[in-house]
Predict the structure.
Amino acid sequence: SGDVNIATQHLSMQDQSYITATSFGDGSGGKISINTDTAELSGGGSSILGPLNTTISSVSYRRGNSGDITLNTRTLSLQKGGMITTTSLGTGNAGNVTVNARESVYLSSH
């Protein structure tokens, strides 16, 4: 899959939204790079497919590796199921998640 590059002042993701770079074939999942002053991920729920969380993810389903995720921010807030994840559901390796938060990281299940 291709890479995802985002540069924004404020990244706000809510209510089961997602940013993903996914490979369903033998190739690798793409890299995700986000540069923002503030990042907020919040919300999750369920569907007929199971739980759905607000997520930034890179996934590979077969032989390839999933890509790396890099988040550069001043503040990061993950609440109520917000997630940043890399996953390999095949024979490849999961990627790395790197968070560079210059000021604070806030984690809450509420």
In short: The mean pLDDT is 89. The two ends are 34 Å apart (CA to CA). Residues 72 and 100 are 5 Å apart (CA to CA). Strands lie at 4-14, 18-23, 32-42, 44-47, 50-53, 55-60, 69-79, 83-88, 97-108.
